[in-house]
Amino acid sequence: MSLTAEVVAEDGGAPQHPGPEGGSFLDHLVVRLSVEYGVEPQAIRRRGAELLASFAGARVQAFVPLLVEKRLRQTLRGGSAGRRPA
Question: pTM, whole model, 2 decimals?
Fold first, then answer.
């Protein structure tokens, strides 16, 4: 038995996974994490796009959104993304 996953590339070559209400899951994730961690959305989107690109060749794509969110949260907890001025 063979498992095949389709990856649709958006600008920049990163895979785009649909979100629950349309758009990419990254769009929704950027908004949530920006509010939760007080970080500029552009910084989160850049890092998220890098992470998505790193999974482009993965044989199984089903868990990519979970892995991207987990790694983004680890990055944000570590303070390595640009915080908004207070």
Answer: 0.66
